[in-house]
Amino acid sequence: MNSNLINLQLFLTSVGICSLLMTDIKRNSSLKRPAIILLFSWILAGLLFLVFYIKFESESNKQFLETIEGVQPILETRMHLYYSALKSGNGLFAASESVTREEWKAFLNEAEYQDQLQAIEGLGVIFRIPKNHLSQFIKTQQRLGLNDFKYHLYPSLNEDEQKRALARDEAYVITYIEPLETNRSKLGQDISSETNRRMAAEWARDTGQPSISNQITMVENPQDSVAFYIYHPLYTRGPVPTTVIERRLRLQGWVFAPLKASLFFNSVFALKNFQNLSYAVFEENHSSPFSYSSDYFKLPSEKTEKRVIKLANKNFIFSFKRSQNFYFSQDNFSSWVGAVASLICLLIGTSIASLQFMKKEALELAEKKTQDLKESEKLLKFALEGVGDAVWDCDILQSTVNYAKNYTAMLGYSPN
Fold it and tell me: Within 10 A of 71 (CB to CB), how many other CB atoms are there?
């Protein structure tokens, strides 16, 4: 829910309530004094809302940036789990003179990597084969049980790319991969025939470090989401090579895995720490993201933060936005502060109007009672004058007697 919409709704609600109350007040008293106090109170309420809004906007921005800074360590840690799976495959080859297909399959079944690392489509081994040994290599694989093992280039190459691939002195052949049922089309593929796959593999060869290819299209599912190949170099047994020349001479191949980008990144941003983030991931020099959250393009872009995060040999550009959950959790308080303050202002204005109305009624009542008292005195005077010929009054304390004028006149005395 957008915070501006919340603020607008609360403002309109307070204005509506105020209009109803002011209409009722107008029937009974003047609006001048309540209106002045109400306006002053609204100004205070607006300032109060502004202070809280600025404070929470600053705090939410700080939290937003802190959450973003926490993304890279988690990504690196998660990617390290995938590298560790590849590296453990290297350990299997280092511990044995040779590793058969059945041993590779048993190793992966025991490790259960497919269940733990759900973004990978499989784990395999690529062997570096000189072209003059390629025919014998194919026959050996067929003799070991894979009768349909065939060497092939990457599909969809144009004629020039095919010529360059066939002219190379070496082939990088996918020889083992499990589960085989879902990756059979990869078996026998020469990854050196496709530029992205080859360049990432050779970077790993020369550095001795894991590497990630540029985004690729999976042969089995061309319409599926973007994927990458991740590699770990596999050298012959012996001390770890320390120079580029030594690494190239001792390269046996690579342990590799096809990695589905969306599954990998979604698994990271599904963590509780990042559920308030909306994200998109780009490759360098690409304007379209290859992985993004479902709400990314629905959110405003004026508060976007970008970060470059390096994983192995590859830079990824991340674009972050505050998700709807982030707005909802951060902005409500200041909105409600403004709303409650407005309602308190209405209460103050209404109370003052009520006091003013009560004062008016009290004054009118006092005036009416005074007038009634005067009328009563006047009637009493008329009554006394009408029937008071022999009226007299005796004051015992003063030992005096007062006689009505007519009475003294009847007795033949003067009023004095």
Answer: 20
